[in-house]
């Protein structure tokens, strides 16, 4: 099985079927980004995937992620099949979000039922058991909020024949205090989620770090600065063994898609 290839850099963002979202997807495509990783939380439903594909010409989409607790394997497979029939190769199914007492077993059962080729499905994996499942049952892993050292360990766990795509926070801001403040707001949210907290501890961060969010922690988990400095930070993941980095731009405000930041970063990344 050949692992998927998305190029060095893509975009992570939340899109809907709104005219604004469809236009943002077209902007990303025009700028030359090869792939958009669709954040699961903002996704209103599977129809949005088809709407985005139809609104663009070549850019590819990966769900990063679809919660297996929210979408049935049958519905996901039907969406994949419809997109594949119309525009082959433009949709890869990224899965995760299993909860309850036996999340690994739930994901395994879901994969048993999912009529999507192994090379077109990925898992949002963090811990060693999830990485193992991703390597055995899918085309690879899609971790988020991780350091370059973690990336090296994940590559060793997955092997060279599996995709390792890392989603990394980015703040297009050269002022250190402002950039770190924006990043802290997002990082602090994830420290309260058990799965992310457990992985942060595995990477060596402590409960004191969770409370204080010191500069060294923020700088390891979020790239900020000029476009060149951001590109240099993101390349650390590629050097450590990642195949692809999904750029998750955060701005500290809610509202429109960060298309201007995508535009600013494009010359340094593409």
From TrEMBL:
Which residue spans traverse the membrane? none
Keyword Oxidoreductase assigned to the entry: answer is yes
Alphabetically sorted, this entry's keywords are: Oxidoreductase
User: What superkingdom does the record give?
Assistant: Bacteria
Q: Where is the Luciferase-like domain?
A: 123-243
Write down the Pfam families for this protein, in alphabetical order.
Bac_luciferase
- Please give the Gene Ontology molecular function terms for this protein: oxidoreductase activity, acting on paired donors, with incorporation or reduction of molecular oxygen
Q: Is this entry keyworded Oxidoreductase?
A: yes
Please state what the protein is called. Answer: Putative F420-dependent oxidoreductase
Q: Which source organism? A: Kribbella italica
